[in-house]
Amino acid sequence: MNNSIDFEFDKQHIWHPYTSMNNALPAFGVASAKECLLTLDDGRQLIDGTSSWWACVHGYSHPTIIQAMQHQLSTLSHVMFGGITHQPAIELSKKLVAITSPKLTKVFLADSGSIAVEVALKMALQYWQGRNQPQKQRILTVKSGYHGDTFAAMSVCDPEGGMHTMFGDSVTQHEFVSAPQTKFDQTFDTSELDEMRAKLESKHHTIAAIILEPVLQGAGGMRFYSPEYLIGLRKLCDEFNVLLILDEIATGFGRTGKLFAYEHTQRHDQIVEADILCLGKALTGGYISLAVTMCSDEVAKGISDSPAGVFMHGPTFMGNPLACAAACASLDLLAENEWQAQVSAIESQLNDELAEAIHFPEVKDVRVLGAIGVIEMNSTVNTAELQQQFVDLGVWIRPFSNLIYIMPPYVISKEQLSQLTSAMKTVAKNIIVSDHQASFISHG
Length: 444
Ligand SMILES: *Cc1c(COP(=O)(O)O)cnc(C)c1O
Description:
Catalyzes the transfer of the alpha-amino group from S-adenosyl-L-methionine (SAM) to 7-keto-8-aminopelargonic acid (KAPA) to form 7,8-diaminopelargonic acid (DAPA). It is the only aminotransferase known to utilize SAM as an amino donor. This protein is α/β, with parallel strands linked by helices.
């Protein structure tokens, strides 16, 4: 392979996330990556503040994951999953059943986060078919959510920030209530769930499931909310016979300071259990695409009792052994349990170092949860411009909407993290507000 990057070809022919072919934004060429450093094609090195969108929690080129993948690659890179099984899928599923809440016993191995959400929604609908309530076909969710870019996933993303208007009637109309309001550490007022209750009272006959991201709404605005919301929500789901789908695709595997964000409800002496759980992003440590949708025995039974008699999904690369091997290795690294100390050290350093940003003129809010640090600006930022500034400062941070945020690999050093936070502060302090940005929400 020729190592010099043909930027002109890239610009003319290759789509990047949320970009235009008329006016392609600059892309940086990455030649290699190790631990928390991305090496550009021109030799410059950038400290990574993104974990490649939540995924690369152990850093790049980790020998344990590479070895596991190399071994798997030379043994069985892929085989169809219809009528065939293999050790990597079994081992991974055993691990996932062991670390998630007790109710979640069945595992569907999907190829990406969006597909895991599609699978979850399909499961909910087929479950009610199997329980003789086929009219339960609507999904209820909260505003400011993000669940992926495929059609069903899009239909439960924030209706204003998402792509509903753009695609009109092609996007299924679901039910929305206000986003959770009480902040993570504030005292929860149960009246916040009144709107949800009212919606369920009037529509529960048609509602199959509620889907939401527990504790942290990611691409819909990096909003952290009270875990008690989830406790109240679980009770409402039970009262009104509606399934609870938790989308932990961004939050799973330690990012928020708990292995799964729903475990934050422990503070209130209980763990909220989902009927269906979606995991992705950091599942393989960010080495290769893989996601899972887990469900309870009861959901699996309902689906299997449905007229179809089977769950109607089975992608070509389902259960890909190479991806499962990477995920097993990543989970083994998490099981060594260093992530807890790492994430809590990152959390306190972020708190210390980002706090002063609240005094900058264009800054609206500064917040930290686990290994996530957010500076929210008063208005939408120019992603391309800021991106260049960050690269000039030697860091890789990719703002979107009005958010300058980081979620670095857990293995980041104290010095590297300081470089990230000081770059964030430098950029946030000197920002020149631009109003030329597209207003739709994207994590691109
Ligand atoms: C990223 C994300 C998805 C979509 O995952 P992809 O792998 O990008 O398809 C779904 N839900 C949440 C909460 C996410 O953060």
